[in-house]
Amino acid sequence: MGEGHVAAARALAARMRTLWPHAEVSEVETVAGGPRRTALLTGAYQVVMRWAPGLYGVAYDVLGRLPRVAVLFQRLGAPATARSLRPVLRAHAPDLVVCTYPVTTGGLALLRRRGELTARTVAVVTDPAVHPFWIWPDVDETWTMLDSAAADARRLGARDVRVVPPAVGPRFGPSGAGRKASLLPRGDSFDAFLPRGGITVLVTGGSLGFGSLEAVTDAVLTAGARAVVLAGRNDDLHRRLTARHDLRLRVLGWTDRVPEEMAAADLVLTTGGGMIAAEALAVGRPVLFATPVPGHGRAAARALADAGLAVACPTADDVARAVAALAADPRRRDELARAARAFSARDLDAELTALAARC
Questions:
Q1: What is the CB neighbour count within 10 angstroms for residue 151?
Q2: Superfamily of domain 174-344
Q3: Hey, CA dihedral for 292, 297, 298, 303, is it positive or negative?
Q4: Of 34 and 10, which is predicted with more confidence?
Q5: Is the pLDDT reported for residue 145 higher than 50?
Q6: Which of 205, 330, 335, 341 would bridge 210 by S-S if both were Cys, CB 3.0 to 4.6 A apart?
């Protein structure tokens, strides 16, 4: 759907390989009932989120308020996912299965209920907020990143709910926050023309560049800040922003330098869901949710704002006001950064070590 679920899986797999050098760790991406169904779900999600995100938000909110209806839709989709998972599980015969995508977890839960899967099975919720689609009572454990999400998961029937650090890669860490990485490749003279002073805001809509990124970028510039925009795979957005030739603005397409860009920014502003926010918190950067996308984006904004870990900005005007206020108040920025570092100081490797002992 986006890169967040895959990034979480890769981060967990990398940590497992380091912690368990004698274990065989295999990664299986996007098993949602076969290639055709996967392509259909992925294409439909991208079209809806780009052109009619309100429809997605309505569905997300309605099913969130009607968990019994959500369970009905879950049961309708799980058999196809289970069928596609059977040959994978037979080939690997795992002792442990850890899943970061709720549709795939549904297939695992069905196989677990039928006795076809004996491995310990863990559902890792990559969003700060829990939606009923994340909850499958037949898996052994459900991992959330916030106490509030854990309470919701238990209310919805999840078994053995544990609050653990977000599944982010080791490059997203506070060590990167202490150094100001260059915002441009070495030798790029454009850096010499950037305005001095003020703050730099990293703007992102996730891997697909969703949300009102142009309006959000304008709000950041209106507030007197510099903007570094991660357009991801949204080539149209990249072209439009680059064509402005604004010296206060830098635009990147798909990049593997996200940890360095976060470390170089004063604020990280996202229109997407929880994974970018989790990575920014791990680096120790203040997080702003700017006109978050309907559904999981708005739910993540509420959850992290309620936990004191982010600032929620429902409109572009709110973004301009929040950026200007934080630019003028370094103490508030430091306060948010300290909260981020405290949140991310928990030990994910220790949780994985404890999980191994339960298998």
A1: 14
A2: Glycogen Phosphorylase B; (3.40.50.2000)
A3: negative
A4: 10
A5: yes
A6: 205
